[in-house]
Amino acid sequence: MDAIDYHALLPEIILAVTVLATLLVDLFTSRKSFAAITAMIGMFASFVAILTLAFCDNLTFCTSTGDRVLFGGSFVVDGYAIVLQGLFIFAGFIVVLMSVGYLETDRYYEGEFYFLIVSAVLGAAVMASSRDFISMIVALEIVSGSGFLLAGWRKGDARSNEASLKFFIIGVLALALLLFGVSLIYGLTGTQVFSEIAAASSSVEDIALFNLGAIFVLLGFGFKVSAVPFHFWTPDVYEGSPPPVTAWLSVGSKGAGFVGLLSVCYLALPSVTEIWGPVLWLVAALSMTIGNIVAIKQTNVIRLLGYSSIAQAGFMLAPFGAAAATGADLSQTFSATVTYLVIYAVMNLGAFAVVIIVGTRVGSYELERWSGLNTWAPGLALSLAAFFMSLAGIPPLAGWFAKFVMFSATIGVGSWWGYSIAIVAALNAVIALVYYLKVLKSAFFDTVPADLDVATLEAGTVPGPTSFAIGLTAAAVLVLGIFPGLAANLGDFSSDFLATLGL
Amino acid sequence: MTLIQFLIVATALFSFGLYGVITRKNAVLVLASVELMLAAVNINLVAFDVYLDDPLNSGQIFTLFTIALAAAEVGIGIAIILMIYRNRQSADVDDLDLMKG
Amino acid sequence: MLNQYYGDYLTVALFIAVGAILVGGAVGASKLLAPKNPGGFKDVAYESGIEPVGGGWNQSHIRYYIFALMFLIFDVEAVFIFPWAITLDAFQAAGRGVFILVEMFLFILILLSGLLYAIRKGVLKWE
Which contiguous run of DSSP H or E holds residue A69? Predict the structure, then answer.
């Protein structure tokens, strides 16, 4: 019962207050935009709080240094937590910016929308700090629960309904599998805290049952990060949900799944890399290959991005697969996944922001309707090119550095586990070029469909908040690509604490 | 102790639940099956907690959280199912086939 | 040690095999042995049973659902107050009684804001 370090909890406290404030502001005011403004102010304040934690050593009012451990090891604020909390709040901020323009196009409930987005951000932020199963699963459910409701936000649209129900059924099934695995691990180690599980796992009586528990946990997270063969819900949910929600699901919700996977594998189960390594090797190889091959024949841009996000999840899982090698440098594979996740989040959010603008202007997300985008909106076409080429991994955009880090980490383990997954990833990086460039070819070199009126299309304007979001993400993609040291620093910062655990 | 009996009951419940999720067509029954799986988890956690004599009782505390989560899930789930039922007069999972590819 | 380890898997394999034989045998035997004689009368309700009319779904008003949901959520959240009450003594002995009291008020305040939302949305009106 020590005193509580409120500074370490400040980002979460601010977010929690923002959640309530967003809901109440919408109840007692008539202007719909107040809720969005409250949400943005809250997230910005929370981001500032994270910055004070990150640069704690240089600040005068900051008394404690190093990693902060709270609640008996259940809640830790270290580099890993800070980087990912910052990422999730940034993602939530961008999604709110995108939604402001989008929600006005139809009769939506607005206040509750922002309430749910901020709740999801809060859940994801807690997820990054939680170091025991109880807080992790509660946080995961805050993220997923708001996701189920957001996916069905277009109440009258049958596709949105369908997306919501599919996402819900898969989500609760994944939760049940995950919890069953957790209950087995708890029963064999007698603790819920990751560091204590890692310490106890070497002396477990029934190793087969422990491995079974680990497999169940991997299965549950497999659904959450939409990796093949647990991916089948992804394209439908992405297509049916309102596009700003899809952007959040592909970055925030998936990111929270990855955070869970990283924490569980590296912090709770480092002693059984021979179990999760090969499983995730296979999952990574399948996700990359199937995601990319199916993406090639997609005609709907949102579905294409859905399959692309499955393939990108495969790239993020590749370092896990390489960790199967005995004596692998786990801090390097860990930092590769974190770096990839950060860069993927930024470029995917940007891609969605552009896709939403073009899609609402043209009135369709079918690729054939998008041809000749360059003639009526050269600026949008250019930013579309930037984000898609970054997703494909073409220098000097940020995506190439993400792939570079991933390759150097997998090859760096110096074993066939690493070489083989690197070969699969290299082949897939080439396949991925096909469909990203297909979109760009259509946008730049094809002629505008005859029934579209170029004059009205040219007259359309980009809503201010959305263009701010596009500008912010585009700048990040360029800066991280040209000065990759920044992203590398983030990755190192996030994995420094592993050294203290002797990994 | 009699841990093994509890684990058998829990595993059986979990399997019934999983079977129900896979085979049932009505969304409400799928939801009920998921609740069976979560109940199995609760039995497991409490049985392990008592068997291990956990000084922190973390298994039982976790069970309280699972119960609250399950209630929240039901609230969300029924709301979604009602929304779908209003729009298309059916809560059949097999009817959800608008999107393909 | 290793023999024991693989022996465990042998048990699992044996279980799966026996399970498959049992289920396959039962289903197969009933397929082979049972006489098949489908007819309209077999679908009719037996003796005093009443012919079912309409679908299995019964319409009830949406307000029942919303009330039930409100009750469920607030009822279940009460579960967290019990462990709090149990640890109260220990916190007071450690001189942090006020802190723990304020924490519970915060928890209830958050729940109440949910109730406030429901009232403002007119959910609790029974017209």
Answer: strand A68-70
